[in-house]
């Protein structure tokens, strides 16, 4: 009997986790979220000395084309 309860609890937790991930991914892909500033901002720390210039960082992140606005 206890084994059935454990299996039921584990299955319920797993199903809720999958549902949460689906809802979260839907929200993160929504246009409402993508337009917010914090959804488009990254913090880069521990930069090597050779990358500590605007010119070098611009060349490094130019793979993102027009998406990088401010460095």
Low-confidence stretches: none
Query: How many angstroms separate the termini?
Result: 61 Å
What is the averaged pLDDT score?
Answer: 87
Topology pattern, helix = H, strand = E: HHH
**Helix fraction by DSSP (H/I, runs of at least 4):** 40-55%
Task: Kindly give the count of domains.
Answer: 1
State the total count of DSSP E strands: 0
Shape: elongated
Largest sheet: none
Radius of gyration: 21 Å
Give me the secondary-structure category. Answer: mainly alpha
Treating each run of at least 4 consecutive H or I residues as one helix, how many helices? 3
Q: What proportion of the residues form beta strands (DSSP E)?
A: under 5%
Task: Describe the protein's architecture and organization.
It is a single chain. By secondary structure, the chain is an all-alpha fold. It has one domain. The radius of gyration is 21 Å and the shape is elongated. Helix content is about 55%, strand content about 0%. The protein is built from three helices and no strands.
Which properties best describe this structure?
0% strand, 71 residues, mainly alpha, 54% helix
Short description, anyone?
With 71 residues, the protein is an all-alpha fold. The protein is built from 3 helices and no strands.
Outline the fold blueprint.
Elements lengths: L1 H27 L2 H4 L19 H7 L11
